[in-house]
Amino acid sequence: MTATEGKWGDLAARAGSGIAMAVAGIVLVWLGGPWFAALSVLVGTLMIWELAAMTDQSRPREALALAGLAAICMVVVLYGQNPFLMPLLVLPALAGLLRPGRPMRFAFAIYAVLIMVACYGLVAFRDGYGMLWIVWLILVVVVTDIAGYFAGRMIGGPKFWPRFSPKKTWSGVVAGWIGAAIVGAVFLVISTAGRDLIWISALLSLASQLGDIAESALKRKAGVKDSSALIPGHGGLMDRFDGLLGAAIFMLIVAQLTDVPVVRF
């Protein structure tokens, strides 16, 4: 294998699985309603399973049980459409936290809450503010990942945070910010969004990168390379959606602090 092949050896698998996920995601985001909710339930359930299995590799059945609990809680909350049901979103985290002798139980609980809240929040955001914001969010995360991937391999340079993410470089991080800002600029042209969207897109890109770093730190502590082997070229769903998780949490926090306008094409 040549150096070039080693550097780009995972590109075909990453591109193929990435395109497949993007097409499925766009269709279900466009359909919205119960279809997008079903996607969120599926992704959230599998991520909780990966998280539980990764943080306690000695109890695979317990991981399945926690994933099943997460699925039930998300279905009840998302399809019940009652705000009083929202506390159910923390049940998987509590179940893992209160399990005697479970390793990394605090890390599991924190990350499990983030997964559940993000899955619920994306559906609520799609229903409340329309499809365009979700499309923007996904594109910012995707462009951040793509720009960082190519810049990191073509330019390289100093590492951004080697203690937690040894592969992420400053060149890739900055390229992600620039790519995200370009996405924001494009949306200014094709939608009724305000000019602040450019710098907000860059901040969202940073949130996405921090989500990636947080998951890398979690994997290093758990002693695993990938969260699972579900997706060719990407590892598991947590490996693929860690950036989306960070971006979704950031967007939900912003929505609580400011008025989010409904934007249209």
Give me the secondary-structure topology:
Layout: H1 3-8, H2 11-31, H3 33-55, H4 60-80, H5 91-97, H6 105-129, H7 131-154, E1 159-161, E2 165-169, H8 170-190, H9 197-222, H10 237-257
Antiparallel strand pairs: 1-2
How would you describe this structure to a colleague?
With 265 residues, this protein is mainly alpha-helical. The chain has one domain. It has helices at residues 3-8, 11-31, 33-55, 60-80, 91-97, 105-129, 131-154, 170-190, 197-222, 237-257, and strands spanning 159-161, 165-169. The chain has a two-stranded antiparallel sheet. The radius of gyration is 18 Å and the shape is globular.
Quaternary state reads: single chain
**Category from helices, strands and their pairing:** mainly alpha
Largest sheet: 2 strands, antiparallel
Beta-strand segment tally: 2
Q: What is the radius of gyration?
A: 18 Å
**Share of β-strand residues:** under 5%
Shape: globular
Subcellular location: Cell membrane
GO biological process, one term: CDP-diacylglycerol biosynthetic process
Pathway: Phospholipid metabolism; CDP-diacylglycerol biosynthesis; CDP-diacylglycerol from sn-glycerol 3-phosphate: step 3/3; Lipid metabolism
Protein name: Phosphatidate cytidylyltransferase
